[in-house]
Amino acid sequence: MDRTAPPLATIAAALRRERERAGISLTELARRAGIAKSTLSQLEAGAGNPSVETLWSLGVALGVPFSRLVEPPTPAVRVIRAGEAPGIRSEQADFTGILLSVGSRHARRDIYLVELDPGALRKAEAHIPGSVEHMIVARGRVRTGPAAEPVELRPGDYAAFPGDVEHVYEALEPDTLVVLVMEHPD
Amino acid sequence: MDRTAPPLATIAAALRRERERAGISLTELARRAGIAKSTLSQLEAGAGNPSVETLWSLGVALGVPFSRLVEPPTPAVRVIRAGEAPGIRSEQADFTGILLSVGSRHARRDIYLVELDPGALRKAEAHIPGSVEHMIVARGRVRTGPAAEPVELRPGDYAAFPGDVEHVYEALEPDTLVVLVMEHPD
DNA sequence: TCACGGTGTTCGTCAAGTCGAACGGATCGG
DNA sequence: CCGATCCGTTCGACTTGACGAACACCGTGA
Fold first, then answer.
1. Contact between residue B35 and residue B93 where contact means Cβ atoms under 8 Å apart
2. How far is the CA of B34 from the C1' of D29 (A)?
């Protein structure tokens, strides 16, 4: 897993990466985490060996799990309608479900549960290049996908589309519930 | 997940637990990790706030991933009920959903859509060690989790549980639909 | 009984992490 | 042009963690 990898440089890189991802300044992050910005500055510069408390508070302030700060980084619209079984099924022995997407070893996938209501057309700016979003509709209907070519999804429908271009989420029914898996490349 | 929990006590407990699991003495562990035994003694006593380097070398010496020393032991089943917003939401600019689970760089996550019907109690044998299953109920009700302590989930509920022990899926209503994310370590 | 090798503890010293303030730089507006 | 307000960096003073030695404790065997 993480073996004897040197955590020093990893932390420095992770801090800067996650901070920029959150879109906040060094000063602001230091304030939120309740640490001196000088400390944070040194950490991001690679000069450090922070205490657990310090790094922990940074993790909390960034909204990322602790382990993401210390473990090293590794590196068009596809729709599957409810009932349309894609050829592949799980080979995993005793399990029989529809395999919607296979994870990569070089990506990170976060799972979200999102409730949407009509009227609020949510425009999402591009995320980091290479990111992919997977959406499965649990309840209601949504129109989602790249801003250029959104698709309409009904319960059980699945769609995957690039997250690194502007894309939209729009509920077409009240109380719409979707499962969203966001995939970020390393 | 790890929230604002104080890591101090967690580390102390984790160190003692893992060390006893390895069956080595405090002195011996300190020697292997290349740190003073006094330091280790204080850490296990809960008095501390170790530097990352120190804790890292302990993790290496114990042969356990770093995160196991700082994150509280994962309960067999972690459930997030529909409507129960877990502390942190995505700060990702324009996105506001409930963050159910954060992906690791050292795991692969596959996304499944599963339809279940009552009566078929599905017992799943243990998968490869370290695998984790994430389930979000889209429609209907299911009873799932480790065979020892299953939980009942309703639409919108989320549960994560270890996949490396025997676990069950059971639909409690007809036409039950769940999104299942299977996570395999590398 | 007492010396021995092992356990984990406590204590003083030193190095290192953390802090707050002061600094140079960039941007904006009067 | 220059004051204001951010940004991130560097500096000295203080705090604290890491170290090693000395310590008390326990079981063993000569």
1. no
2. 32
